[in-house]
Design goal:
about 210 residues, alpha+beta, four-stranded antiparallel β-sheet, 9 strands, elongated
Amino acid sequence: MYVRDFMSKNLVLITPESSLADAFALMKENRIRRLPVVDGENLVGIVAYSDLLKASPSQATSLSIWEINYVLSKLKIKDIMKTEVITVDADEPIEKAALLMQKHDIGALPVLEGGRLAGIITESDIFDAFIDIMGMGSPGTRITVEIEDRPGQILGIIKPISEAGINICSIATFHAEDRQELVLRIDTEEPDPIIEKLRLSGIKIIRYDIF
């Protein structure tokens, strides 16, 4: 699962010489909050809705509406855009994009392919990827079990499920405060027989949810 699988390729772009008014209009029209800034084919910056608000006159200003519009038309994107742009390659794992967003506290990353701008990936895209990773495409059962940090334990959990002829839609591990958990999503809405089988195998079931 890679960045290219979830990025948006329908880019809405703006140039450094565009005005704040142009940026506001583009964001409103396309219902987006960020615009990659390009000079020709080169990515030179990014501007977010919050950047536009910071640069705009305060609501408490004494300027008239005509004066405000004049200010917005004169301010240029090049004056407020961020030029140190954090990017990600289209062929990177989706997890790397998520880590970059978390590390730099940003909500979107321009995506490069062969050094050229190919798309953008946002927090919403990461949420979509998470839902996909957790196998949420169809009804089933989510089972959370406690595991120890030793070889072979996951196999011991998967084997009874496989022997019961039930498909595993997804599997992931999580670190809680005092334990490690394995979360499986299985393709059945009648999990009681497999839950009982896991318990008889010595597996500690923390909880299970059908949805």
